[in-house]
Amino acid sequence: IIWAIIPFLILIAVAWPATKSILNLKDTASPDITIKATGYQWKWGYDYLKGEGEGISFLSNLSTPQDQITGNAPKSEHYLLEVDNPMVVPVGKKVRMLLTSNDVIHAWMVPAFGVKQDAIPGFVRDTWFRAEKVGIYRGQCAELCGKDHGFMPIVVEVLSAENYTAWVGEQKKKIAAAAEDPNKKWNPADLKARGEKVYAANCVACHQANGQGVKGTFPALDGSRLVNGPRGRHIEIVLNGKQGTTMAGFGKQLSDTDLAAVITYERNSWSNKTGDVIQPSEINSARK
Questions:
Q1: Would the pLDDT of 23 be above 80?
Q2: Domain range spanning residue 216?
Q3: pTM of the model
Q4: Domain check: are 158 and 201 in the same one?
Q5: How many domains does the chain have?
């Protein structure tokens, strides 16, 4: 009987601490900060839901220059692992991450934190981490998610408590400064100039800088019947996407002004000469 009892006791001695560790790894309760990360093709959106920084939201896009990607310039140290807006957290604080997706399955992975969690459309998954050292940590989308899967990095900047508080203050000021009058009437030149920047950041990967798209995969906008047709249908597609295609809706990603600007740009660029000027108020009405 001793040969049965001794292995049983060894098993209990190993299993008990292991079980506690596994439960602790999955315990997302009592976080200091809660952040929702939403996967988009092909970028991440971050919403600070609870804790210091609550109310801050932004998109995080790949910032590697196009000439490096095309091989026309030397590759930088952090090639394809750099973004315009990193996620920022304070050192030593428990950060709960809520993961979801706007289109297809993505996965938020930062190896240094031991975190990898799928972001699934229609579901919210959660995980957590606590960064012990100030610094910059990099990761990538770890779920094959389409054409630009390899161009969807994750960067987390960990700051001291004092610097994090200062960052939160700066972000709040930017949000207040960026608040726009939804009834403002934009002139065509300013709207188109802004739309060109929005297009470069959100649309060029599929529809290309020249508006020609990718034959058989992403439709051309240059000369498109949709773009040159009724403006209401064009607004609807950009706002809500088109079911059964790779066209995702941008209503949750972009402001009324940015949407108005990019649609105005598309309808008045390349060979498209509709002369239409879409105002933010028109987008606001279409959302309702």
A1: no
A2: 188-287
A3: 0.79
A4: no
A5: 2
